[in-house]
Design a protein that fits this description.
single chain, alpha+beta, Metal Binding Protein, Guanine Nucleotide Exchange Factor, Chain A, Peptide Methionine Sulfoxide Reductase, Chain A, 2 domains, six-stranded antiparallel sheet, six-stranded mixed sheet
């Protein structure tokens, strides 16, 4: 998490608003990705940006799962915050007709940083979802891989909407602790991340990881395309051919529910290393 200056805290933490037409990103058109200034999570793509004439950067779409909506304290508007760290971004408005999507995410420039796309390359990102025990350790080790833009801890694979940590650990929801990895496909690929996943946890341990025992700690890959499924199944076959009794499930991805803010970037904030995750060469 970045240390914020006074003006950044006023906007991001205290939910203030910068003066219209004053933000550094109001009129930018450079291809790239807009990320949260506080935690670095990717939020918006440049291709979704448009000029609404309102004085603030406007986007008609978000990177999937990156932005959370909640009622504004004024009781009228809808606030938008970073889904990863909860930092204030601005407000969202619908039905105004500026673009065919009919949505305007009105964002403070000071809530964001900008990562330009490499020349000739798209600013698009891709995601992968892995469950391999306590999400703190998987998150920490995935974050260190080149090409990974952000890693978010959360819950997936269960039956309860908007599950809490207390519900998940009670074994009543069916969810797994998992991470959603957002990465730059021009710098890494899904197979590289899946191989890393199989080497930072024990894929032969059923319903647990190290001392953490329970269904929520199971080993599971939640694929979002046939290509991801094929990669996962291929790597499992390679490991089984090497003699590993892999129990990792390969499952279509459902809704990924971000975990509470205190679970995000846990080891980075604590300044410690995972107690049950370490990399072991398997391929």
């Amino acid at each position: 998490m970045k240390t914020l200056n006074d003006e950044e805290r006023r906007i991001i933490i205290d939910k203030g608003t910068e003066a219209p037409y004053s933000g550094q990103y109001y009129q930018t058109t450079t291809p790239g990705t807009y990320v949260c200034r506080q935690c670095g999570a990717p939020l918006f793509r440049s291709e979704d940006k448009f000029d609404a004439g309102c004085g603030w950067p406007s986007f008609d779409d978000t990177i999937e799962g990156a932005v959370r909506r909640q009622p504004d304290p004024d009781g009228v508007r809808t606030e938008i915050v970073c889904a990863r760290c909860g930092g204030h971004l601005g407000h969202v408005f619908e039905g105004e007709g500026f673009t065919p999507k009919g949505t305007r995410h009105c964002v403070n420039s000071i809530s964001m940083d900008f990562i330009p796309a490499e020349a000739g390359k798209s600013s698009g990102t891709e995601t992968a979802i892995f469950a391999g025990g306590c999400f703190w350790g998987v998150e920490h080790l995935m974050q260190q891989e080149p090409g990974v833009l952000s890693v978010e801890s959360g819950y997936i694979g269960g039956t309860t909407a908007h599950p809490t940590y207390e519900q998940v650990k009670s074994h009543t929801t069916g969810h797994a602790e998992a991470v959603r990895v957002t990465y730059d496909p021009t710098r890494t690929d899904y197979e590289t991340l899946a191989r890393l996943f199989f080497e930072i946890h024990d894929p032969t341990q059923r319903d647990g990881q190290g001392p953490d025992i329970g269904e929520q700690y199971r080993s599971e890959i939640f694929y979002q395309s046939d290509a991801q499924k094929e990669v996962a199944e291929h790597l499992i076959k390679l490991l089984r051919d090497k003699g590993y009794d892999v129990v990792t499930r390969v499952t279509p991805a459902g809704t990924f529910w971000p975990a509470e803010a205190y679970h995000q970037n846990y080891y980075e904030r604590q300044g410690t290393e995972p107690y049950c995750h370490r990399r072991t060469k398997r391929f």
